[in-house]
Amino acid sequence: MLLNPVISKLSGKLVVLASASPRRLEILSNAGLRFEVVPSWFKETLDKSLFKSPYDYAVETAKQKALEVAHRMPFVSCLYLYTVDGLILEKPTDKQDAYRMLSRLSGKEHSVFTGVAIVLCHDKSSDTDYKVVDFYEETKVKFAELSEEMLWEYINSGEPMDKAGGYGIQALGGMLVEYVKGDFLNVVGFPLNHFCKQLGLIFNSPPESPAHKIKRESDEAWSLVNSLSEGAANGEVELLENGKDVSQSSMQEHIVIGPECSRQDIPHSIVSLLDGFKASKTLFTASKLKVFDVLNSSNSLTLEEVAGQINASVLGTERLLEAAVSLGLLERVKQQNTSVYRNTEQASRFLVSESPESLNGYILHCNDMVWPLFSHLENAVREGTSQHELAFGKKNEDVFQDAYYSKDEVKIRFMDAMHSIARVTGKDVATAFDLSPYKTACDIGGCTGAMAYEFTKAHPGLSVIVFDLPQVIEMRRHFQPKEADDRVSFVAGDFFKDDLPKADLYILARILHDWSDEKLDVLLSKLSKMCTPGCGLLVSEILLDEERKSPSRALLQALSMTEGKQRSPTEYSDLLQKHGFTLKHINHTDNLLDAMLFVKEDPNDRRTLLGCSSASIETAELE
């Protein structure tokens, strides 16, 4: 079953890749699909012991990923994992874990399972009908007998660290494989053949065929899907009408198939954009009024109780809470003949201000600083400049030198925004690569140290110096963790003007996109002089695809008209190559930030300089 006959059936439907994985992107792009990228936030925490087989676990995880994204847009999700000797092997946590995995695979035949769940949503006159189609694909792979030398050579290449099962068959890991039985692309990242067959059944079968009518009353995931419309039917129907119908999501290496418009003459995706700013402002206002904190402290409250605690009118509070329910931020349930509100699991995790992974600080920053700037976007586009002066009555100066930020509370609010992002992204960035060769690191512009603490947690042999402006270092005490790691230290200075601390590894997280090419030349020239051959440079940013089409989050952020710009991996590689740094690895984390690892090359090694750059990018993109 070829995909081309199905493509015409997908017209009017949004197709989304719920992963930044280059493997999935390449497979589906080559098949002719056009898609956007929206990762799932579902954490893979299901108890594997509760499942009878690895593929049951894979399919259920795929479903949960799809359902999480269905709150925002309906998807297809898949989970990629390996099994051998009855064990489920996912991504190795460190080199020893990679060794343990690959040793088990050596000389044996193992199975690669991919679970895929497709959620189909159809609008009816008064309700939304949900159906789930799921399947799995199994491919058998036989490893050759691997010597200790070959095992460690492969592990030290760094390739196993971001791959389920500890190897990538499409890259260096292909040298370990003796034979493959089944769909090769399933091992690479996605079972394209089986997926195309399922699409054919869904879109070419008669309306009452099994592919269109799937009963799931006893299925927990099916119950969860149906519950999305209970108590909030109007809001959920609006979300689905605004652009989606079939979805595919996955967080490790996943895919996504999106929405079917029930009415082809209605521009659902455009209507969704028209209401998008209202949804954002609903989130901002609920956070500003501490709705999520109030509900967290009491578990569940009536409308009147919430209104009293946030000091707002009952009518206004009712409309705000109903809107939040429709967006999947809150739940409304019946208790003793009255309705009460409570946080969803996602709200408890990311929106409660005291949560370890809270985005509250960044949300308030978006409300107080970003929203006013975007209110003047038309002027910004015409002039090609930031509208900071129009929005705030003064020119855009450095946050900690502008008189606008003279009050400590304003400085703390900005730092809290940066702290929020670092807490959510820090672990994934810190574990993106094997950093065991490095003993000392310097987090340039590291603000509160949240990212640095994640690096020391992930790498016991690493100490980190946080280098930032004196005012930042002075105020970081407000964000000190209860149990501070003495391997994290703080040094005050201006990274454009002052000498940088010496280190084996330098970290630039959310720095490069913010500054002009001229200022970056100053910073990177300074780093290049500081670094000896072998010194590492870890860059963490939102990485654009090579066609500069996604992720939209990066392109929308660029509209703030700062002096910097968003870049693709190739553009970052070209920027760093000019200063003697060669790209070695890329990790698309499926979090808010991606990561790239560069190494300072020996300028006297002409062979390295002339031969390494393009090859390293190509290899990195396969990871």
UniProtKB/TrEMBL annotation:
Residue ranges occupied by any O-methyltransferase C-terminal domain in the UniProt entry: 374-581
Domain named O-methyltransferase dimerisation: residues: 272-353
Required cofactor(s): a divalent metal cation
Keyword Glycosyltransferase on entry: no
Gene3D superfamilies documented for this protein: 3.90.950.10, Vaccinia Virus protein VP39, Winged helix-like DNA-binding domain superfamily/Winged helix DNA-binding domain
Keywords: Hydrolase, Methyltransferase, S-adenosyl-L-methionine, Transferase
Top-rank taxon: Eukaryota
Single GO BP term: methylation
Entries under InterPro entries matching the protein: COMT-like, COMT_C, COMT_dimerisation, ITPase-like_fam, Maf-like, SAM-dependent_MTases_sf, WH-like_DNA-bd_sf, WH_DNA-bd_sf
GO terms assigned for molecular function: nucleoside triphosphate diphosphatase activity; O-methyltransferase activity; protein dimerization activity
NCBIfam families in the record: maf
Subunit structure and binding partners: Homodimer.
Protein name: Acetylserotonin O-methyltransferase-like
Organism for this UniProt entry: Cyprinus carpio carpio
Native organism taxonomy: Eukaryota, Metazoa, Chordata, Craniata, Vertebrata
